[in-house]
Amino acid sequence: MSAPDNQDPRLDQAAASDASLLAAHEKLLGTQPDEKAHYALMPLVLLFAFSGLIFWAGSYLNRYSGHFDAKIFDENALPHSGADVVVKLDPVVLGKKQYEAACITCHQATGNGQPGVYPPLAGSEWVNGSEERLIRIVLRGLKGKVLVMGAEYSTAAMPAFGQVAGSGYNWSDEKVAAVLTYVRQQWGNKSGLISPEKVAEIRAKEAAMKECTQEELMKLP
Ligand code: HEC
Question: Is 88's pLDDT higher than 80?
Answer without folding.
Answer: no
